[in-house]
Amino acid sequence: MPYSLGNDVIVTHGGIVSQVPRHPVAHSRPTSRNNMTSSNDVGSPTLDVDVVIIGFGPTGATAANLLGQRGIRTAVAERDVSIYPRQRAIASDEDAHRVWQGLGLFDDMLATMSTDVRVHFKHGDKTFLSMTSSQSHDQGVPGMCYYHQPELERVLRQGIERFPSVTVMPGYDAIDLVQDEQSVTVTLRPADGSPDRTITGRYVIACDGGSSSIRKLLGIALPGKHIEEPWFDIQLRAWYDLPVDAPLDFTFISDPHRPGVDCPCPMGYHRVEFRVNKGETVEQLQTEEGLRGLLAERGIDYDQVEIYRSWGYTFHIRQAEQWRKGRAFLAGDAAHIMPPFAGQGVSSGVRDVANLCWKLDAVLNAHASPSLLDTYEPERRPNVQQLTDFSLRIGKLVMLENPTAVRMRDSVIRAAMKLPTLGPLIKSNGLKPRYQLGTTGGFFGRTALRRSPRGSFIAQPWVTGSDLTPVRLDTVLDNKWTWVGFPSAPIPTPLAEAGVHEVKLEYSSAVAVHDVAAGHYVDSEGTLERQMHRSRARGFLVRPDKFIYASDREISSDDYARVAAVVEGLQLSGTA
User: Among the four residues 256, 289, 354, 545, which has the most C-beta atoms within 10 Å?
Assistant: First the structure.
């Protein structure tokens, strides 16, 4: 049966079969391929795999790509038969983009993303703060990008078609979970009413959202708070023409009478969000009269747009008490429900699975100790908490109600923007916490000296090899444990004997004289040299997730043994 994405498209399992826009559309919607991929036979009542993923949103689809890239037998079960049509998330940042780049998917995503978006805070007809959001802090990919979520998911799901080790099962709801010391068995209930079936895997990753059935089956509590104040979201398609170079800027409406958000999105979509004021109801706002009135507040003519979806919601700020129980892991919203103001929901889920999947690979393929998996939550939770706090600070800034406090906010921020150091920092979104993994309880070098780079990512500049062709550093790192060092810090012999890859760095003068030896690379912009200088280092040991295990001045013989136990036998395949 086809289902409706709105008033303008009708979609079936196999793609778009009819497109009947009410008005001419400036931005055409690309024709999609199958919304769900099934790489292996799923007809049998039982299926044995290495990893079972429950949930197929951006977090689950990213995990499936990461595991497929590593040749790990994976099954993905998803309640919905097709891509969810509503635009729940609208943004992701450089941390997620670097992961998707490593999967070979980010260029396809960029085709329908908005980059270099400015973020404004507006009160009345005055803007008291504007920031750029495109900085990637040397990650080598664009910073904050905005998108239409169903299009993002289409690219992620098509990526899975490359990997025959991944089976995708649409229309299955997880209803039971049983585990022992060797495996986990999940019982699935088909949406079509056919008999239940089971999947047995060595591990399970729950990517099934804030109402996660797996989390509930595991009996893991989700403490936190629920913000009672209701909000209302309108997703629309714009039928008016926009210039090709028109900025799709994001605006926080910081008005005490009705705070909200205004975000033009790619492909002609537009999100507008409003606080529901006292005396109003979601049901009233969803009438034509209510929608006309709300849109008029933003200067949008109801007759010039197509209302695609509208809904009411409230905020939740919650984190699961534990992210692992036995052989089952929680990721994304199943582990932590983020406040929306910083746009970190999707990126946080991607960070989760990027951290977890290389460790599953080490345990499954390299016979690393399963205790490596215990480092997942200690490494990830601190960053989730930092971003939660950051997002709440933005929310408090936007939702002030006291007129005196509002005037003070506007004046203080305008004054701060004029300061020579603080102003540029705020304008560049420099107050957002940098992605740093927790090192207490994490898998990093045991010794931490002053300015230690442990737990931070290695920068990703363009590097030039012996063929003098620039490539991104991650292409050279290739998802492996890698020693990256200058001539004064060659790879330690025990690491080389364990199979750690080596990237030998040369100074920029080597390119100038066209003399780059085979296996050597030059960072002509000096990005890595500056990063190492800040750490007082000449070499880094880099994990498969691009985070630094230790520098040359702090790594020890004990570390050699720990890393060797994880690395030896580890096999990774490419993205194609």
Answer: 354
559 belongs to a structural domain? yes
The CATH number of the domain holding residue 543 is 3.40.30
> Does residue 555 contact residue 541 with C-beta atoms inside 8 Å?
yes
Paired sense of beta strands 250-253 and 305-319, if any: unpaired
pTM above 0.85, yes or no: yes
Beta strands 203-206 and 51-54 are parallel
The boundaries of the domain holding residue 550 are: 462-567
Q: Is 503 part of a structural domain of the chain?
A: yes
- The answer to whether the beta carbons of residues 101 and 472 sit under 8 Å apart is yes
Q: Packing angle between helix 58-69 and helix 94-102, nearest 10 degrees?
A: 40
Q: Work out the pLDDT band at 21, boundaries 50, 70, 90.
A: very low
Q: What is the CA angle 250-256-258, rounded to 5?
A: 65
Q: How far is CA 184 from CA 61, 218, 326, 458, in A?
A: 20, 12, 9, 35
Give one DSSP letter per residue of 24-82, joined into a string: --SSPPPPP--SS---S---SSEEE-SEEEE--SHHHHHHHHHHHHTT--EEEEESSSS
Q: In 160-211, at which residue ranges do the beta strands (DSSP E only) sit?
A: 166-170, 172-179, 184-190, 197-201, 203-206
Query: Residue 397 has which token pair?
Result: 């800034």
Q: Is residue 36 part of a domain?
A: no
The domain tally of the chain equals 1
Query: Do the domain assignments include residue 291?
Result: no
List, in sequence order, every beta strand (DSSP E) within 320-443: 324-325, 328-330, 336-337
* Spatial separation of the C-alpha atoms in residues 270 and 516, rounded to whole Å: 49
- Name beta bridge partners: 464: 470, 522
Lowest model confidence (mean pLDDT) among 66-70, 180-184, 297-301, 460-464: 297-301
CA angle 78, 83, 89 (to 5 degrees): 100
